[in-house]
Specification:
20-stranded parallel sheet, three-stranded parallel sheet, 550 residues
């Protein structure tokens, strides 16, 4: 691609410029005239081999500078000196096979983020850190690409350069540490977030000191065998802990996280967890925990009081984890707002399952089955009167009681899609004002008008992918549908299922003649009058004849 020197002259307000995969071989080919307001410059995925930036380079307002996946091998201080004029710049050199950075090249620069992921493929990581000596950045990414083979392991000595870098969030994603120990982190005293995703860690070294500022720790996709192996006491002020996607079966242990009294967010999803006595002792001491993710694990058996007394949990996710639960496992979780029980095979006949959840506003119950495919009027939802969002899709439902949700007066969003319902059960809801009803992908054919005429103008209903009857038997609903198209979601997929000649026709385009025309009515009336007249004449004739005969 060729760009003239005056290519952007007229674009006086241009803020974002993307020139990815355009065949550029030098940044000198990008005209810099009239780009003073530029905030984003993306020249990634090209063939640029030098970072030499011209004196006219627009750094005044620049916030995002993306140089990833080019051919940069050497970076000299004079080439990027103009970047010292910028503040809070996010610079990405991801995927460049860097061999040399002049020491202190970025000295005194103030960045928001620096991304050198995938850059140390053919060079010691210490070379990159030497070039970053004296830099101040909020985020620094030093990870490697997963598909690179034959990469040498990282040693603690390679990381000594971190002592001369000011950084708040540091990522070592997909690095392999050779001598992982407490000394590995001796220069990371100012860290607020540490990401060690896919770093082949089996045991987090105990005795790590001087990390009192650390608030978020990401240990996902490693090989821990027990939750106690992370030695959480070394990070007493953590508020966020991620251990999702663990490659070994993770034992939760007992009180392994007890020292994390400030922890608010805990993600243990996809970690092959299986326990028969969850979760009171495992969560002991986590007095400020608000978000707990135990989704996509093997099987959990909950206790009667499955969570510690005084728990402040607000969001709890068990989706895709088989659950065995006693009568009231969630009792006393008075702050819980969101509960995800999707695909848990939990006992839906337990009417006290949701007892003790006065603040629950969102319940995701997708892919759980009910006895005989029926939700009775007296069901497990009676204990959550403040529920606003209820997801019951793919639950094999066939029948819903006519008052099944009458205790849920605050419902705003109901998803009953992908079930086997043959009737629109709108009478199951107390309030049809400002509500979203999703009945898509069911088996509904005929809808009585009284089932839809109470749906308010500020409500929405989805009836798509149902085999709707388009004969005179359903004419009242079809007329209502056309008059209330503004309440319909996905009208393009709301089609006729019968009769066969018009199967697949959009309901909004169907025209039926189910009444009697005025002409026909007139003929019928005239015929009746004629019959009455003839009958009268005949009767009079016979009466008169009979009188004369007498």
């Amino acid at each position: 691609m060729y760009l003239a020197d005056t290519a952007f002259v007229g674009l006086i307000s241009l803020k974002h410029l993307f020139l990815t995969q355009t065949g550029l071989t030098s940044i000198a080919f990008v005209p810099m005239y009239n780009l003073d307001n530029l905030e984003t410059l993306d020249i990634g995925s090209n063939s640029i081999s030098s970072m030499q930036l011209p004196d006219s380079f627009p750094v005044k307002n620049l916030k995002e500078f993306d140089f990833q996946l080019n051919g940069i091998e050497n970076i000299l201080a004079k080439d990027v000196s103009i970047l010292k004029q910028s503040t809070n710049l996010s610079l990405s050199l991801k995927g460049n096979s860097i061999k040399y950075i002049e020491p202190r090249t970025f000295n005194s620069n103030n960045f928001y983020s620096l991304n050198f992921a995938g850059c140390a493929n053919s060079v010691d990581l210490s070379v990159i850190l030497a070039g970053l000596m004296g830099v101040n950045t909020h985020i620094l990414r030093l990870g490697r690409f997963e598909d690179i083979q034959g990469i040498p392991e990282i040693t603690s000595s390679m990381l000594q350069g971190l002592c001369n870098i000011s950084v708040a969030e540091l990522s070592f994603e997909n690095m392999h540490f050779f001598d992982f120990s407490a000394s590995t982190f001796q220069c990371m005293t100012g860290l607020q977030k540490l990401d060690l995703t896919r770093s082949h860690i089996k045991l987090f070294p105990p005795g790590i000191g001087n990390m009192s500022l650390l608030r978020e720790l990401v240990l996902s996709q490693n090989v821990f065998e027990n939750l106690c192996d992370i030695n959480s006491a070394s990070f007493p002020f953590l508020t966020h802990l991620h251990i999702n996607g663990n490659f070994e079966t993770l034992q939760m242990g007992s009180g392994c996280l007890e020292k994390l009294s400030e922890l608010q967010y805990l993600d243990l999803s996809c970690s092959r967890i299986e326990t028969s006595n969850c979760c009171s002792t495992e969560l002991k001491g986590l007095n400020n925990l608000k978000h707990l993710n135990l989704s996509n694990n093997y099987q959990l058996s909950l206790q009667d009081l499955a969570f510690p007394e005084g728990s402040k949990l607000e969001l709890l996710d068990f989706s895709f984890t088989r659950l065995q639960a006693p009568t009231s496992p969630f009792n006393k979780l008075k702050f819980l707002r969101v509960l995800n029980l999707s695909h848990t095979s939990i006992d839906t006949n337990n009417q006290h399952l949701l007892q003790g959840l006065p603040s629950l506003t969102t319940l995701v119950f997708r892919e759980n089955s009910f006895l005989s495919g029926t939700i009775q009027n007296d069901n497990l939802f009676q204990f959550v009167p403040n529920l606003e969002v209820l997801i019951l899709s793919s639950c094999e439902l066939k029948v819903i009681g006519h008052q099944a949700f009458h205790t849920l007066k605050k419902l705003k969003h109901v998803d009953l899609s992908n079930n086997k319902l043959t009737a629109l059960s709108s009478n199951a809801f107390t309030n049809l004002n400002k509500i979203y009803l999703n009945f898509a992908f069911n088996r509904i054919q005929i809808i009585p008008e009284e089932m839809v005429n109470k749906i308010s103008d500020n409500s929405t209903i989805n009836l798509s992918h149902n085999p709707l009857d388009c004969t005179c038997s359903n004419i009242e609903f079809i007329l209502w549908y056309k008059q209330n198209i503004g309440k319909i979601e996905d009208p393009e997929k709301t089609m006729c299922g019968t009769p066969r000649p018009i199967e697949g026709t959009k309901l909004s385009t169907v025209t039926l003649s189910c009444g009697v025309s005025t002409a026909v009515i007139l003929i019928i009336v005239l015929t009746l009058l004629l019959l009455i007249t003839v009958s009268t004449v005949v009767i009079k004739y016979f009466l008169k004849r009979r009188y004369h005969l007498i």
